[in-house]
Amino acid sequence: MICKKKRLYPIIYYFFLAYSLKLYIVFTMSLMKPLKGLIDVVTSLPRGGYLVDSPAGYIQFGAPPETIKDTILLPGGVPLIFVLPEKFFNWIKGISVAELEFPIYYNYFIKKNKTRIVCNAEQAEKIKTVILESLFGPRFIDSSGPDGYYSNIKREIEFFRIMKFDDVVEFCIFKDDRAVIDDVTISIDSNNHFEVYYDKKILAHIPGIIEYKPKYLVGERLSEPFNPPLFGMTCLGPSSGFDPYENTSGFILWLNHNGVMIDPPVNSTEWLLDSNVSPKVIDSIILTHCHADHDAGTFQKILEEEKVTIYTTRPIMMSFLKKYSALTDVSEEYLMRLFVFHPVETDAPLFIHGARFNVNYALHSIPTIGFRVQFQNKSLVYSSDHNNNPVIHKELFDKGVIDARRYHDLTHFPWHSDIIFHESGMTPLHTPVEILTSLPEEIQKKIYIYHTPKSEIPADALLNLSKFGIENTLVFDVDAPPFEATYQILSLLNHIDLFKNISISKAQQFISMVEQKHFKKGDVIIKKGTPGDSFFIIYNGTVSIQSEDKKFVKHFGTYDYFGEAAILREENRSADVIAETDVILYSIEKDKFKNFVTNTDYITSLEKLINIRDDSTWSLLSSSRFLKFFTPTQRALFESLLVSAEFPDNGVLIKEGGKIKNVFLIREGTIIVSKDDESVAILQNGDLIGQAANLYEGSVSDYTFSYNGAVQVYTIDGKEFRDFLINNPGLIMKLDYVFEQYLFFKA
Asked: For the segment 605-646, what is each residue's pLDDT rounded down to a tens digit?
């Protein structure tokens, strides 16, 4: 198909947006060093994907989150041509590699051009769904729900919707694996890789699979693990999705020593680990809206470890599901099972970790929520992406776009709150900084501004710029809740799979038994050869346990436990346990612990784990290609499911078309994978036998797994493994992704 350029002339109303964006780019050229030049015809972009410098202009293959930050300062600027990879979503990283929202914005408002997308017809429909949800919001919003604002939001979206889809995007569809753009030919070879030709000469070979490479600022790494405050706020990034020098905005709200992520930026989990913060202390997300700079990191957190809770309104959640269903190529119903959705309404309070939230719809181009939170004797308001310009509010009311109730709420922003986190950015979708600097001095002093570079804030302004980094966490002085210590202990129980379904009476017993202990870095917590007198759960910090053969060291962190084996076996300690950092533990004395677990399911699980756990098992799990994405906690839980087995001679473990009753981990030997009676792969020591997604869905096996000669395995009961996957949903697609894409060895 031949695709030709077409110039666009956007509506004058958005002229100021384009002008502001140009100024924004100039102002932010001082903090980091992004890509400013090309080294060859083909450039591997810092965040992933490839850029080809062709006679038709820059052609970009793949578009990971924040890809615009890689190209915005190049001589040719942001590409107008994007080629989509075969797979839009990387399940290992938990991110999309077809994130075109910001390049489309930039090309439309700054370059006054359409973005041309090269893909096949099926991909075009999927990416159109993604772009429609991101740029224009949901097409239908149910006005019959309990939330009275829905009808106002529909009209507001229509007010901001000044362009059509065909104004911003043009598709160039592959025909017979070939597309031509301005005399440049892009073709797909037999291995699904790309080739670029001009004048019958090849310009570039591009891999068909686009990998993502994390790129972010860390700030100052804490020397000791971060101890979450009672009430506080950490800035994950202070700036916008267009800023090539700073992390994109996002926050962690700390409540009762637990973290709630607000629109986590991409790479948030890596950022936390690099900053010496355990991601486990964050158990929920507030998703304010579905623009790429606000939801790109949400799926990463969903796939990280145990299920998280997502708080947002139904329209925003439905938009999120529709967008990511198109990107991942799995159903909305399946995605919904990966997390816990807690619907939020604007006419009813929400309670999270003892704090009261009042949620409101912000003024933005797609459904967006902000909130005010009250915790103990303090209040905090978070504006979210919001145009807080009174002139715009009056215009909307005068034109009948909003009703009197909505106008009242927009013009009565809770400036009286103790702490105010307010965005600023390009009008008309954001609040001009002049609005904030015109506020009374006592209000300005309470405001922490984000979504804007420091250079845009006047020197004489009293506003506070949100400071990025865990070391700049704001801790707010509040009265301690009456049950603070009890709440911490219950949070501990809630994060340990062993005690997930604990009864209230057992929880009472646990609270009465535990004792908090502190150890300094380097302290010996357990000495090898001493009697087992206590069971320990880590609340904060990291400990090391050296294997008996001293070949490797296990590292345990927040919410991991140890010390049960010596107690239940009535043996001396088998290894030293050393505090790698300052550590806070909760311990239970031996007699109390035995009393607590006797005649419970806990004792069965613990004894099973003790019987299977040894150095060789842990070594096998640690070196397994299939399990390399497991966290230490997931690895320990998985270990508790293993039952040793050996099969002599020849046989079949799982038959193609048969039900997957069990899965297996190879200890010693090889397994032949075949389909339609043809051998397609060989699996080896440490590999997992059985398709995780098929087992999870209850569908039959796509392959036969057989052996010729004796093989030693660990057997995992299918029901137990499915329960494990339900509690750790991010592993389902990761395991199948590894099985299908990376770890096949031709027989």
From this structure: 777 777 777 667 878 888 898 998 888 888 888 988 999 999
List strand residue ranges (DSSP E) for 657-743, in order.
662-668, 671-675, 678-683, 688-689, 704-708, 711-717
Measure the CA angle with vertex 441, ends 440 and 446; round to 5°: 105
Which uninterrupted H or E stretch holds 194? strand 194-198
pLDDT in tens, 99-149: 999 999 999 999 999 999 999 999 999 999 999 999 998 887 765 555 555
Closest CA to 463 of 474, 454, 476, 472: 454
Span 494-503, average pLDDT: 84
Q: Do domains 484-612 and 619-742 have the same CATH topology?
A: yes
CATH number of the 619-742 domain: 2.60.120.10
Put simply, whether the predicted model's pTM sits higher than 0.85 gets the answer yes
CATH number at 484-612: 2.60.120.10
Closest CA to 310 of 273, 334, 337: 337
Question: CA–CA separation, 508 vs 592, rounded Å?
Answer: 13
DSSP string covering 633-660? HHHHHHHTT-EEEEE-SEEEEE-TTS--
Extents of the domains making up the chain: 2-206, 484-612, 619-742
Its sign, for the CA torsion 589, 592, 595, 596, is negative
SS3 185: strand
Find where tokens 């202070």 sit: 238
Is residue 683 within 8 A of residue 666, CB to CB? The reply is yes
CA-CA-CA-CA torsion sign (234, 238, 242, 244): negative
Q: Does residue 428 have a cis bond before it (omega within 30 degrees)? A: yes
Assess contact for 63 and 103: CB atoms under 8 A.
yes
